[in-house]
Design goal:
The protein is mostly helical. Helix content is 86%, strand content 0%. The chain is built from two helices and no strands. The chain has helices spanning 2-27, 31-68. Helix 1 (2-27) runs antiparallel to helix 2 (31-68). The radius of gyration is 19 Å and the shape is elongated.
Length: 74
């Protein structure tokens, strides 16, 4: 349960950062562009957060499996 909550919060963090960056860039053009940029940035940020969360899980599983595999003796 804890891992699930951390994954959701990580995705939300990236979405918020993406929305802020998108809104900032869009704000250089106009108010409407700021709104659109924030929305698009939030979607991209959520996608990046989900990808990163999945990658962290795969890396952790790989490390666990590596510990279980005995190393060949010389």
């Amino acid at each position: 349960m804890r891992e699930r909550i951390q994954r959701v919060l990580g995705r939300a963090r990236y979405a918020a950062i993406g929305a802020g960056i998108g809104a900032g860039i869009g704000g250089l053009v106009s108010r409407n562009a700021a709104s659109t940029g924030g929305a698009i940035g939030g979607l991209i940020g959520a996608a990046v957060g989900e990808t990163r969360a999945n990658a962290d899980t795969v890396i952790a599983e790989f490390r666990e499996r590596r510990k279980e595999i005995p190393l060949p003796e010389k």
